[in-house]
Amino acid sequence: MNVWKISWQNIRSKPLYTFLSIGVLTLSITLLLGIQQIKYAFKNQIETNLGNIDLVIGAKGSPLQLVLASVLHLDNPTGNISYAEARKIIKNPRVKSAVPMSYGDNYKGYRIVGTTEAFLSIYKAELETGRYVAQSMEVVLGASVAQSLNLKLGDTFLSSHGLVENSVDVHNDELTIVGILKPTHKVIDRLIVTNLESIWEVHHHEDEHQSHEDHEHHHHHDDGAEEREADKDITSLLVKFKSARSLLNFPRKINESTNLLAALPSFELHKLYEYTSVGFKTITWIAYVILVMSGLTIFISLYKMVKERAFDLAILRTYGASNFQLIKMVLYEGLMIAFLAFVIGYFLVKIGLTVGANYMFNKSQQNLLIDLPLQELLYVAVLIFMMVILSVSLAIYPIIKMNISTILSHEK
After folding, report:
1. ∠ CA 142-143-149 to the nearest 5 degrees?
2. Where are the beta strands (DSSP E) in 211-287?
């Protein structure tokens, strides 16, 4: 007796119950996998992009906004700060390293960050081809930027003012690509990196154009780099301390005695994660409730099949089928329903999140999704399997208590 074939025929013979069972279970699986995927991707972005950044210093405003803008590059900066004042912090004996950042321009939606070569070490980024920036108006592309825009070494482009792609406020200074970074799956993949001088020079020339509209040419270099830096601004400063003890009072001192804002990125991002976890947990519990409902649906479907086909099952027993074979038939039917629901749910999550990610990517150039770890998939699969086993265990009760002679004689 081919138990698998009989189970499949049973499923096909009751399409309404089968569709209902698969549909409800698919909804539960889709919610569970989808929320786990988003939750894992968000947590991964927080953990991997923090790198070795202990403190972010910028203009007064929201600490969370400052961290999102300077670490994850997902928000607008709180403003600019004096580079001369930032240099005092860089020279502080308690500071191991401090990486300045200046941004406010983009190319086709990708942010252009003026910084130093030390910025690459925060994300452990390495060059795949070319070299790092040696002079102003040179840029290094993150892997995602180069791939998405199909750019290569030697290409030039014009940046736009602001963090959103536009064709209205375009700068006149061409930027030349001199390097492309290896993929890191971190935020730097979505950035265009240059030096501070490039950002200052572009905006300095824009100021010249506004005040001297009759000038057709302008110079790219002045004398006295130190004098130029004295009145320049940057967006933020990424600080790493020599000792963790500095985190106890250094940020408070900055916030209380200067016009700067010091924010702890680990604290702000994990606080944000805790806030969003409330929503994640709510949707997860909804998915669990639907999972219980799907388990009841499968149980009712299997139990109804056993009761309605009691005569057929009794006939199979008279032809030599054992109780165990009949139980396997019910079990296989439940497993096939669960397998079909899991496959459909998995592909719905992949398709749905891919479409959603592509939409977000086109809008904000921020592709945050990564593949869900195998253990998370196994966790959901084991949960579904246990639910099916429980449903089958309850549904096979009539088989265990079957009285073949009474069923065949139609006696009650």
Report:
1. 90
2. 233-234, 236-241, 260-263
Phi, psi of 239 (to 5 degrees): -110, 140
Q: What is residue 259's three-state secondary structure?
A: coil
Phi, psi for 122 (deg, rounded to 5): -60, -40
Q: What angle, rounded to 10 degrees, do the helices at 3-13 and 15-50 form?
A: 100
Strands (E) in 44-126, as ranges, are 55-59, 81-82, 95-107, 110-115
Q: How many Å apart are CA 277 and CA 231, to the nearest integer?
A: 43
Residue 321: CB partners within 8 Å, gap ≥ 6? 1
Tens digit of each residue's pLDDT, the chain (412 residues): 566 776 777 777 777 777 888 888 888 888 888 888 888 777 777 777 777 889 999 999 999 999 999 998 888 888 899 998 889 999 999 999 999 999 888 898 899 999 998 999 888 899 999 999 999 899 999 998 998 899 999 999 988 887 776 666 777 888 999 999 999 888 899 999 999 998 888 766 555 544 444 444 444 444 444 445 556 889 999 999 988 888 888 999 999 888 899 999 988 888 887 877 787 788 888 888 888 888 888 888 777 777 777 776 777 767 677 777 777 878 888 888 888 889 998 888 888 877 766 665 554 445 556 667 788 888 888 888 888 888 888 887 777 666 666 766 664 4
Whether the Cβ atoms of residue 262 and residue 86 lie closer than 8 Å to each other: no
The answer to whether 191 and 366 are in contact (CB under 8 A) is no
Contact partners, residue 93, CB within 8 Å, separation at least 6: 242
Helix (H) / strand (E) containing 151: none
Model pTM? 0.70
